[in-house]
Write the structure tokens for this entry.
Amino acid sequence: MITSFILASALALLPTQVLASNNGLAITPQMGWNTWNKYGCNIDEQLILDAAKAIVSSGLKDYGYNYVVIDDCWQKNERENNKTLLPDPTKFPRGMKPLVDDIHAMGLKVGIYSSAGTLTCGGHIASLGYEEIDAKTWASWGMDYLKYDNCYNQGQSGTAKLSYDRYNVMSQALNKTGRPILYSLCNWGEDGPWNFASTIGNSWRLSGDIYDNFNRPDPACPCETYDCLLPGFRCSVMNIINKSVAVAQKARSGGWNDMDMLEVGNGGMTHEEYRLHYTMWAALKSPLLLGNDVTNMTAQTKEIIMNDEVIAVNQDSSYSPAVRMWVKGDQQMFSGSLANNTQVVILLNAGDNETKMTATWDDIWFYSLPNVDSSKSIEVRDLWQKKNLGKFSHQITLDVPAHGVRMVKFMGSAQSS
Ligand code: GAL
């Protein structure tokens, strides 16, 4: 009797959120840098070492960017004794372990890439059927992160069960190594990973590959909604945002919706567009993986990716993704709760002209209705201007630049009870 009472009380104290794949990683969305967006297959040991050094010397590491992820095209196209994966000896003459050791010595972590198929998307040897051997190999090199793609999957997709089973084999193999390895699924939203991946992985891609463009429609990225069957590639920032909002609330501590690597600094968008891009990735709690040349960054690029107040929204301990509260033509409004009763609000203008946008207290605290006190006066801080805008009540109206955002933080809540 007493024992069962103690047990029941102990159970009541357990956190309600079960961590994805129970590996204790990605409590907040992972941050780091990935080779793919800028360099594609043109990677080698020197390039990766230079990037890692720059992540430290530029200060990016201090902002939380701590994973250096080696994407596709690192492999030698032949397994040793038909078993062990090897790195391409011309690109990685010392092998992988010494490179990983060097990066670890800088206080950073290292990630690797493969596919849950017979080949990677770049046509290199991949891991389907070799999960345990490959997981062991990566663990022996000291890898801390696996990005796991979906090419050449031998038709083992098309239902959530098929995808889950295939990705689960690697999840189990990684856990079996005993090394904590962050598991980042990259199946482009196929079969709805937000519904099946949270128990086996730490993040899952939502769409086909990002393209360094704000809103260009592209025949290679035919889907406008998350439930469309052709993820494609060359997806613009607005295309990915519009797909992601529908499943934003599936994100949770330990398991995040991955909107793909960032393009900030790669040159295809304006400063305002990059700011919008970074704002939405931060607020929807996407992993923040830089995809630019970190050895050579403009002041404008740094201003975006080193804004501690915006990063703090992404890494906030409430773990709540912002929610789209309304869409009016080109305008969208988002609201998300943050720790300590504060709230992030985003006014997004995808239109071609600057415009005034208004959010009411009922819009912002919609989920607290009818307990919203509209007369409540609350201090508002602009997270990009890094200054307080003063106190507001009932509503806030701000000028929002073309293809831009205003991202503000409410320093209190209008909830009346
Ligand atoms: C794609 C993936 C990209 C990149 C590429 C490498 O499928 O979405 O992010 O990893 O493969 O070939």
Notes: Residues 1-20 have pLDDT under 50 and may be disordered. The CA atoms of residues 55 and 61 lie 6 Å apart.
